[in-house]
Design brief:
One of its GO terms (molecular function) is ATP-dependent DNA damage sensor activity. Helix content is 48%, strand content 14%. The chain has 423 residues and is α/β, with parallel strands linked by helices. It folds into two domains: 172 residues, MutS, DNA mismatch repair protein, Chain A, domain 3 (Orthogonal Bundle); 215 residues, 3-Layer(aba) Sandwich (Rossmann fold), CATH 3.40.50. The chain is elongated, with a radius of gyration of 28 Å.
């Protein structure tokens, strides 16, 4: 079973999408090969739920980060070898013998085959040399074994028609499965080197995955991976304290913090480096968020009704007994303040009873937090807004308690909106 995050969650956190601006996928996509891109997309689409598998992948990324290796293949060489190894048509000596030698030497198909074979041989020699740097990487043993069976590889220089026919038959027929293994190995190296380079350059760390029964999440330094100078915050959750109730003024950083949390959890389940320090987490069954829920004109849904349906969907999943993480940013902001207060209070109280799940819930209706203070399993935190004279300043540092900041009118006055209208 794989970790589940639905389309809404992926869009809220801007996780996937090769061509989406500032997506987390794009952040890590320094890939050189098309096969590497496919592998990276697969990792993003299928996060893991087995802690051993997660920790093994994390250890692999850490190994490549420590080795500081450079991907040794050009994208054109890899593409040429891929094209050659998947060429259609007959290969090898029997097909060649069916042609007269003089005609064959000027045959366009033959020239294509020759160039593809030469590119593939160059790729294999480069691979064999590069493997000397991977002494402590267990998967390299399989690749070494395959390449060691090609004893003629290092002796290939000028190729006659007959040697081309022989090598072509070896690589594209007898050893086709082994060639596929080596290509997959090159794609793996592409991803491991590219992702670990990003981790080193951006100061990311590696999380430790724990069994679901431990039911904890902990980090001392969480930040958003796309921000070069993001403020780090500590977050801890467990079954006795499974809800973080977050308050703060608009622009104080609530949404960014919530996205940072969701992204770290998702990347952690992928075994990827995270923008968090000392992070350990119990594996979850999935992640759901409600941050930018749109209305639906085709269905006739208002923004508020779309929010209600989203909460209902999450409630269905939570009540089924799954171990989930849920992020609600500004619940029921599509309705009036009184209804939003009542609904946020009731929904938060109901969700909090599911101690096997973790919840991060934000609101700017601070009275809800005050009404929830009798619940022992809720953590109350806020992001402060400070005033330098009449100008607001945001620390982005998580603080214990419930905010008392009410600076909305100050911001409106600073922008001189009323003066504009009166003039």
């Amino acid at each position: 079973m794989s970790f589940k995050a639905d389309k809404q969650t992926l869009e809220d956190l801007n996780l996937t999408g090769k061509f989406k601006p500032n997506s987390i996928y794009q952040l890590f996509s320094r890939i050189k090969t098309t096969g590497g891109e496919r592998l990276l997309e697969q990792m993003f689409q299928q996060p893991l739920t087995d802690p051993d598998a997660i920790n093994h992948r994390s250890a692999t990324f850490r190994y490549f980060q420590e080795q500081r290796l450079t991907f040794p293949f050009s994208s054109s060489d890899v593409q040429a070898a891929e094209n050659y190894l998947t060429m259609s048509g007959a290969a090898g000596l029997p097909s060649i013998l069916r042609k007269r030698l003089n005609a064959f030497l000027h045959d366009e198909e033959y020239e294509q085959l020759r160039k593809g074979l030469m590119a593939t041989l160059h790729l294999l020699r480069t691979f064999k040399s590069f493997l000397q740097q991977l002494n402590n990487y267990e998967e390299a043993a399989l690749w070494r074994q395959v390449l060691s069976d090609l004893t003629w590889l290092s002796n290939v220089k000028e190729l006659s028609v007959w040697t081309i026919a022989y090598y072509d038959r070896q690589l594209r027929h007898r050893l086709s499965a082994q060639m596929e293994q080596l290509l997959q190995g090159i794609y793996q190296l592409d991803v491991y080197i590219a992702v670990s380079d990003v981790a080193r350059q951006r100061g990311f760390h590696y999380a430790t995955a724990l069994p679901a029964s431990r039911n904890i999440f902990h980090t001392t330094g969480l930040r958003h991976p796309a921000l070069d100078a993001g403020i780090a915050n500590a977050i801890s959750l467990d079954s006795r304290s499974n809800v973080i109730f977050l308050t703060g003024a608009n622009m104080a950083g609530k949404s960014t913090l919530m996205k940072s949390f969701g992204i770290a959890l998702y990347l952690g389940h992928m075994g990827f480096p995270v923008a968090a320090a000392n992070m350990e987490f119990s594996v979850r069954d999935g992640l759901y968020s409600s941050i930018n829920v749109p209305d639906n004109l085709n269905m006739g849904y208002s923004h508020f009704y779309a929010e209600v349906l989203r909460v209902k969907q999450v409630a269905t999943e939570v009540s089924s007994g799954k171990n989930l993480v849920v992020i609600f940013d500004e619940l029921f902001k599509g309705t009036n303040v009184k209804d939003a207060y009542d609904a946020t209070l009731a929904v938060t109280t109901a969700f909090a009873r599911y101690s096997n799940c973790f919840f991060l819930i934000s609101t700017h209706i601070i009275e809800v937090g005050q009404a929830l203070q009798t619940h022992a399993n809720l953590q109350f935190t806020y992001l402060p807004t400070l005033l330098d004279g009449a100008k607001p300043r945001y620390t982005y540092r998580l603080t214990e308690g419930i905010t008392s900041d009410r600076h909305g009118m100050t911001i409106i006055e600073n922008e001189q909106i009323l003066e504009l209208l009166e003039s």
